[in-house]
Amino acid sequence: MNDIIIRNIKSLILPKKSDGPLKGREMDELEIVDQAMIVIKDGVIVYRGEENDEHEASEIIDAGGMIASPALVDPHTHVVHGGSREHEMALKRQGVDYLKILEQGGGILNTVEQTRKATHQELLDKASKNITRMIQHGVLTVESKSGYGLDRENELKQLEVSREISKKFPITMRHTFLGPHAIPKGADGEAFLDEMIELLDEAKDYADFADIFCETGVFTIEQSRRYMEAANEKGMRVKIHADEIDPLGGLELAIEQDAISADHLVAASDAGKSMLQDSGTVAVLLPGTTFYLGKDQYADARGMIEQGGAVSLATDYNPGSCVTDNLQMIMAIASLKLKMTPNEIWNAVTVNAAHAIDAESGTLEAGDRADIVLWEAPNHEYIPYHYGVNHAHTVIAEGRVVYERPGLTL
Ligand SMILES: N=CN[C@@H](CCC(=O)O)C(=O)O
Ligand SMILES: [Zn+2]
Fold first, then answer.
1. Which ranges of the chain have pLDDT less than 50?
2. What is the CATH number of the domain that holds 121?
3. φ, ψ at 324 (rounded to 5°)
4. What top-level class of enzyme does the UniProt entry assign (predicted)?
5. Mutate to test the pocket of ligand 1, among 98, 216, 239, 321 (most ligand atoms within 8 A of CB)
6. Most buried residue among 111, 201, 315, 340 by CB atoms closer than 10 A?
């Protein structure tokens, strides 16, 4: 006997299973099965496809004509941090630049102060609220970075909290050590980087990946290369915050260092974009950040896809440059500003996002974890179209309903 059958699914959205990320034209392919069902046993998929009468289960969920998909994957977040930075909103609107705020000791460094002050429990309680909202919005796989500690004690504290979240919630997590996220006030960049390279030996017991913020006034290409080489030598797969504001050649460096992902890429060079096709690096685009910083130039998703690259999307949830837990909002911005097609967007927040963090690919094959979302929407194109609201109605983690949208109490 199976545990659960989900019946009466209007359409089932199925990204294509593949060993690597979907690249170029493949990103526009999506299988849609109409009038579908999903059968689950012991938290894994037994069958998904056209509805039939061949299965029995102890529990039947009537999807009532909703659409279903694998749960979403958010492959770039800074969900563990202290404090908040709403006071920066006014500064930014007055035209003060994001990097200028950092240079003056604000921005990331402000969050560093607040994160250092916070206890483990305070960080856990705060991040739990964000994770709860992410789950309510249909996300069951999340990458989480450190980077607001900038010293041994506080970087490891962030990573410990991150690991505790994965025990507390029914989600899959990947943890990333982002020690070189900024240069602490008064510190020497080179000496600080040496410290962070040394810390990799301990961080690798807590984190799956090593990341660095390569940007003007933060870490140079040469420094980023030094860090990535050290991490690779220690057997850690690398990631990089690259070409977010200035075209430094971070994407080329990511590919040279066989990074699992290169993230941001708003100012990536044409040479870098053309190299994506033959690389194992996923371009993780964060258009919510461009939107939130009030900029006009977005990452060239079309150029990357048309040249055969693999593109993914993430919230980049963080307290300064993109304060949203809602990946559906990012799907809308990807449609409006990155000009990605609905199929590309769905692949970018499922299978390609999973490949960007080496997680299960979320294609609902038999044997896969039953992480599923029932969406109150007539079709998959509707979700990026009707923006800014939550379309997730029921979220199922490993075959268990963990969220159901509450109604009004009138
Ligand atoms: N750009 C660098 N790091 C984060 C922002 C962190 C912050 O502003 O607190 C990002 O990915 O956008
Ligand atoms: Zn980031």
1. none
2. 3.20.20.140
3. -145, 145
4. hydrolase
5. 321
6. 315
